[in-house]
Amino acid sequence: MRPYDELVAEALAADVDGWGFGFLDGRATEERPPWGYARLLADELGRVDSALDLDTGGGEVVDEAAVLPRRMSATEGWAPNLARARDRLGPRGVEVVHAEPGRPLPFADASFALVSSRHPVAPDWAEIRRVLEPGGTYLGQHVGRESAFELIERFVTPTPAQRAGRDPHREADDARAAGLEVGDLLTARLRMTFTDVGAVVWILRKCVWWVPGFDVVRDGAALRAIDADLRSGRTLVAHSTRHLVRATRPA
């Protein structure tokens, strides 16, 4: 294994924009949910005339679909991802707009037959219902409770509120309270592994909400402890949680 400083420097220099994870190839793994979200979304996009993808990242998941609706829009709140999504999806006729969590979506009522999101920051069910046309569908894959906490706990101690957050059943109740009918609600717990400290540094730079304010100097003791474990032959194992939500606005 390469020296600690070299691995950390490489991870600090690597691009973290968008939702690509190529840096982790051969250095980390994560099981995929059994339902195959990208395939499900592609199937839905091929059947509707209008769709909106929320928190699209760099537009990678939408771009996997071979056929897009006649009217296709996407939102993103982080400037580097917004630029990347426009570069990726603009040539395919997708309107990519800036939208911040907690603010109304910049679309008229009943604008879309399908609203989708992979790993939304915080689903705003009232806004999702508002922009869905009657009979329209929401399809989302969300991050679940205590996702990657075995890694996060090497750096910070999550609060009780953080441990209780992103509960799939609570999210389903919130969707119903906003006037949506929840059909599918599937959950999965998935194994993650990391084989070098550079992979850890990179993922904490990309998923900035895992360890707020992450810094390789401030958090150096935790990183060096992980590095020592990995050099002794132990693999760092954590678990991600995901849930699939399918809901409709009543006709």
Give an account of the 3D structure.
The protein is of the alpha/beta class and 251 residues long. Helix content is 33%, strand content 25%. It has an 8-stranded mixed sheet. Helix 5 (125-131) links the parallel strand 5 and strand 6 (132-143). It is globular. The model has no long low-confidence stretch (mean pLDDT 96). It comes from Agrococcus jejuensis. Pfam families: Methyltransf_11. One of its GO terms (molecular function) is S-adenosylmethionine-dependent methyltransferase activity.
Key terms:
251 residues; alpha/beta; Rossmann fold; eight-stranded mixed sheet; Methyltransferase domain-containing protein
CATH-wise, what's the superfamily?
Vaccinia Virus protein VP39
- Under the CATH scheme, which class? Alpha Beta
Helical fraction equals 25-40%
Q: Separation of termini? A: 59 Å
Question: Which whole number gives the mean pLDDT?
Answer: 96
Unreliable spans: none
Structural class: alpha/beta
Number of helices: 10
The run of helices and strands is HEHEHEHEEHEHHHEHHE
Query: The CATH topology, please?
Result: Rossmann fold
